[in-house]
Task: inverse folding
């Protein structure tokens, strides 16, 4: 009997732990991480700090927590944070930035990435009736911009300008692994524009749980306390860190194939009538539908066993990940053609 196969293109968060990863988790050496005694957590944090070219790193359960701790590190209530359009820590973290750090946002430019001129327009001179600008957040790759990579020179110029204005820089690098794989820049080069950087192990890398926040030794010491304050001081967390380490060591290569498959998906979708496909930098494909609503299209695809997300009234998002092979992409293309 043929097994019904659901092709899940909603996100790279749907990846299940691989057999090798499950073995690494089962075999993990552990201790009580609240006492700083979990060897696997310490190894992961050292490894990630080194890869990102920072002094220290901290394992946290989610990317949301990593970003929110970063906001708390850099800002005081009432401060202003400059971000690109659709930035995750402003738009997709349940209002946490207002609830915890008490910051407000100023949006620079359009489309997610922005340049120095847009930064200058978003940052005003100090005045008693205005919020204090304190931090710039760059998101690389930019999720809502379709997995777009920041051009290296542009990121550097924005970062230099931010510092000249006296602002700190946080990099939301949930998918920095993808940016590195696709651009050929090292993770440390990409992270070099920022004071703090967050990365996710639970996106394309395929770990079930976890992110890290990296930065100076002092920043990460303070972050560790904030993590405890948020209720995420964890005990034998090496079981989870083993999955993240395995992902970093063994599943990073695969991102290149995700990018090739995403490009193939985009190229063939562009041949179908009624679809306008955005340029693809990494593993995310944005598609505008011209003849019906995105929600209707999502429903039609669902009946054909293909899952995608509607991210705007007329825009779909399809995300390629390691649980999909070329045959799945071809089957998804067939479903798109029928839908
Ligand atoms: C997924 C994601 C996060 C973190 O999400 P969690 O679900 O909290 O792990 C942060 N930033 C970006 C850009 C993301 O895509």
Result:
């Amino acid at each position: 009997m043929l097994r019904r196969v659901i092709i899940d293109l909603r996100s790279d968060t749907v990846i299940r732990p691989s057999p090798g990863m499950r073995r690494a988790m089962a075999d993990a050496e552990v201790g009580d991480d609240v006492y700083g005694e979990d060897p696997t957590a310490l190894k992961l944090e050292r490894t990630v700090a080194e890869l990102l070219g920072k002094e220290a790193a901290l394992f946290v359960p989610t990317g949301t927590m990593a970003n929110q701790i970063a906001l708390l590190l850099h800002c005081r209530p009432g401060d202003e944070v400059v971000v690109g359009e659709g930035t995750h820590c402003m738009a997709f973290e349940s209002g946490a930035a207002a609830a915890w750090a008490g910051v407000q946002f100023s949006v620079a430019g359009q489309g997610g990435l922005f340049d120095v001129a847009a930064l200058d327009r978003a940052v005003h001179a100090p005045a008693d009736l205005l919020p204090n600008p304190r931090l710039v957040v760059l998101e690389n790759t930019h999720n809502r911009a379709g997995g777009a990579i920041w051009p290296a020179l542009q990121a550097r110029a924005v970062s230099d300008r931010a510092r000249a204005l006296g602002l700190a820089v946080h990099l939301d690098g949930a998918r920095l692994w993808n940016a590195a794989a696709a651009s050929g820049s090292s993770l440390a080069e990409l992270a070099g524009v920022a004071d703090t950087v967050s990365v996710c192990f639970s996106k394309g890398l395929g770990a079930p749980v976890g992110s890290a926040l990296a930065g100076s030794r002092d920043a990460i010491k303070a972050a560790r306390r904030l993590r405890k304050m948020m209720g995420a001081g964890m005990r034998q967390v090496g079981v989870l860190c083993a999955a993240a380490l395995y992902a970093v060591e063994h599943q990073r290569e695969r991102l290149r194939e995700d990018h090739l498959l995403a490009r193939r998906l985009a190229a063939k979708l562009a041949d179908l009538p009624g679809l306008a496909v955005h340029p693809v930098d990494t593993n995310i494909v944005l598609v505008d539908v011209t003849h019906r609503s995105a929600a209707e299209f999502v429903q039609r695809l669902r009946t054909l066993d293909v899952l995608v997300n509607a991210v705007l009234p007329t825009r779909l998002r399809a995300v390629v990940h390691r649980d999909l092979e070329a045959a799945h992409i071809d089957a998804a293309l067939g479903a798109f053609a029928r839908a």
